[in-house]
């Protein structure tokens, strides 16, 4: 990684390197949660980080339902257990054993769960930037989740996104109105450690794809103009950059 | 903001503060692009940041179509112009004048456009975590976009997300196959400056919502257990935190 500085004074090269370390060491945490409480000062900061995500037409369509009640979390966990059984039946025999051996959520072990929602009617029917692509408001709430996730990592907090759930039943448990979409259900807490690699990569479920195979030019699957082959060369040279930057 | 340190050694308190500055000063850039080329070393880093987003079932469903061709960008710009006209007709008279005065894209002025896609068939029909919520793969590509956006900001690069487009026509221009979804079309480049606030906020289109009104407890619109009212007090106290952290 070169030491060239960003072109403005607000974000330093050191800030930039810290951002990359945060991005590359962020994990989907399932089995490493500790029950230690999260201070309000920390929770406030990460909620502000989420609230300053980009949103289509400045809709800010999100809400944050903080779930601490053990009773409510147990009901969500029951939903997970049911869906998890249904999911297991969908895999081939070989994959099913591996699937059943995976820890996929920390709903009860983490001190706080947060459901991040999208209010599709927040600013009326016509929204700048949502006129032609109707999913843009949902995507805004996803950006809020990713901001929250990175802010949490920078505070030493793990986040796990639980998506093995029946969405309609979850809405009933959390009393979410019809026009509100529960975009993500997150578990949040301090951790014993962050794993060096994503768990599904370490478990041999799927490999990390080589980035150079995912980059096209001027159209799908398009070969390169000569000057751009230098970018692919750079990407190949940088392949250990994320790994190197998070080595402790 | 207190000076408490994150609980691991990898991310320092200074890194964390840099992340917050990056998050709070990120902007959707439309009118401030410069044509300066983006070095391959920089582009490689921000693509790696995107590639290390969370993905459901470790699918990594994204591709990155880098669009430099002026001819291709002109065709995308023509799509924007058409959709922009259609969109203007949807607003009330009062809002339409304001809408028509907004600069909403930098397709031709920025040196690079990037279309971030989602390959919904990448790892077969059954994906861990997508068995019950089918949109999770699209959300993974959105997380990649948000990582890319923050990495770009930390490199002094602006990003603008153009969503006023007919998606099907865009797919034809970029020769994107049926089963691939173009999740986001981004403009990327160095900028003359980053605005202090989102443009739609400054223009009086919509106000920033108070975060404290967006936080619920244990269910939609639910009032607070006594101990959690301290969190709302903290949120009120922190209301200038993002602004303060990006003050130059």
Task: Give a structural overview.
The structure is a homodimer of 248-residue chains. By secondary structure, chain A is α+β, with helices and mostly antiparallel strands. The first copy, chain A, is 39% helix and 13% strand. Chain A has helices at 13-25, 40-51, 70-88, 93-100, 136-154, 167-173, 199-202, 229-237, 241-245; strands spanning 64-67, 112-119, 157-162, 180-190, 215-217. The longest helix of chain A has 19 residues, at 70-88. Chain A is globular and about 60 Å long. At the A-B interface, helix 1, helix 2, strand 1, helix 3 and helix 5 of A face helix 1, helix 2, strand 1, helix 3 and helix 5 of B.
List the helices and strands and how they pair.
The structure is a homodimer of 248-residue chains.
Chain A: H1 13-25, H2 40-51, E1 64-67, H3 70-88, H4 93-100, E2 112-119, H5 136-154, E3 157-162, H6 167-173, E4 180-190, H7 199-202, E5 215-217, H8 229-237, H9 241-245
Antiparallel strand pairs in A: 1-2, 2-4, 3-4
Helix pairs in contact in A: 2-5
């Amino acid at each position: 990684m070169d030491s060239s500085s960003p072109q403005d004074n607000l974000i330093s090269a050191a800030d930039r390197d810290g951002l990359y370390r945060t991005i590359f060491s962020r994990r989907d945490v399932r089995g490493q949660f500790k029950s230690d409480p999260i201070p309000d000062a920390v929770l406030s900061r990460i909620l502000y980080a989420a609230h300053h995500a980009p949103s289509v037409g400045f809709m800010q369509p999100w809400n944050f339902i903080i779930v601490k009640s053990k009773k409510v979390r147990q009901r969500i966990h029951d939903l997970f257990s049911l869906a998890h059984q249904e999911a297991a039946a969908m895999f081939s025999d070989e994959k099913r054993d591996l699937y059943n051996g995976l820890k996929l959520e920390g709903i009860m072990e983490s001190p706080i769960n947060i459901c991040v929602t999208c209010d599709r009617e927040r600013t009326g029917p016509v929204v700048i930037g949502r006129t032609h692509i109707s999913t843009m408001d949902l995507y805004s709430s996803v950006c809020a989740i990713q901001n929250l996730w990175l802010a949490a990592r920078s505070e030493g907090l793990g986040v796990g996104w639980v998506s093995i759930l029946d969405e309609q039943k979850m809405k009933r448990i959390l009393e979410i109105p019809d026009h509100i979409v529960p975009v993500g259900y997150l578990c949040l807490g301090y951790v014993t450690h962050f794993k060096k690699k994503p768990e599904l990569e370490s478990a041999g479920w799927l490999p990390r794809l080589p980035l150079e195979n995912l980059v096209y030019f001027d159209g799908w699957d398009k070969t390169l103009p000569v000057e751009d082959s230098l970018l692919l060369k750079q990407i190949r040279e940088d392949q250990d950059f994320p790994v190197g930057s998070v080595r402790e």
